[in-house]
Amino acid sequence: MKSLKEKAYVELKEMIISGKLKSNERIDEELLSKSLNVSRTPVREAINKLEQEGWINIVPRKGMFVNNISIKEINDVFQVRSNLEPIILEMAFERLEKNILEDLRIEFLTFLDKKELSSDDNTRLDYLDNQFHLFILKNCNNNFIIKMMENVYEHNMRIRNLSIQPKKRRITATNEHIRIIDAILEGNFQKAVKELKLHNSKAKEGFFNSFIE
User: Fold this and answer.
1) Where are the alpha helices (DSSP H) in 93-118?
2) CA distance 209 to 213
3) β-pairing, 63-66 with 26-27?
4) Count of beta carbons in the 10 Å neighbourhood of residue 142
5) C-alpha 108: how far from its chain's center?
6) Is the pTM of this model over 0.70?
7) Which CATH number fits domain 71-211: 3.40.50.300, 1.10.3720.10, 1.20.120.530, 3.20.10.10?
8) What are the extents of the domains in the chain?
9) Distance CA 182, CA 188 (A)
10) Cα separations (Å) of 145 from 52, 141, 177?
């Protein structure tokens, strides 16, 4: 059973990731404690933890604010992903279960022939994207890397949720995931790394364009 601090932490972070709490929005501790149905103490503890993880900015004598997504944050996220994901893939490569990869591939393929993507389609693609990268991460068998990258992926999720991704980019990203999976299924590590690096480069470019525009 989650503690009140953990409950407040999880729910508040989800509000930030989903965009329910907007960038630069001021956080009212009292209102938040009422909406989460917990006292102010666990809310304050959750806020302090979220500040340490880069979600919230506490400004003395002014208040607490949701951190804005900056070009630097996007660059920082992809600097970590671009450098560590190839290493993580190498660590996990021999442990990746082919049946799970094949199931993910089949699901990704279902979106390629669609003329339009509905809101539910986009939500499902986001879910598959997360599941694919987390599947590789969990199989690296290093708890320190897993914990660090889970935080990076959550920041990546927020960036994606708040960006405007056209259908063309979503379909391109889907094809990129399929090519990575195909290379892994072939047992071709070098090809998988090449496709993974290309995917990260294109994803970073897409997010940059979305926030600059």
Assistant:
1) 98-109
2) 6
3) antiparallel
4) 15
5) 18
6) yes
7) 1.20.120.530
8) 4-66, 71-211
9) 9
10) 18, 9, 22
Which fold does the domain 4-66 belong to in CATH?
Arc Repressor Mutant, subunit A (1.10.10)
For residue 37, CA distances in Å to 17, 28, 29 come to 20, 14, 12
Crossing angle, helix 4-18 and helix 29-36, to 10 degrees?
A: 110
Residue reference for tokens 């959750």 = 46
- Two tokens, residue 62: 């002014």
Q: What angle do CA 68, 73, 79 make, to 5 degrees?
A: 170
Distance between CA atoms of residues 198 and 82, nearest Å = 9
Q: Note down pLDDT in tens along the chain; length 213 residues.
A: 678 888 899 999 999 999 999 999 999 888 888 888 888 898 999 999 999 999 999 999 899 999 999 899 999 999 999 999 999 999 999 999 999 999 999 999 999 988 899 999 999 999 999 999 999 999 999 999 999 999 999 999 999 998 888 889 999 999 999 999 999 999 999 999 999 999 999 999 999 888 765
Q: State both tokens at 113.
A: 């022939």
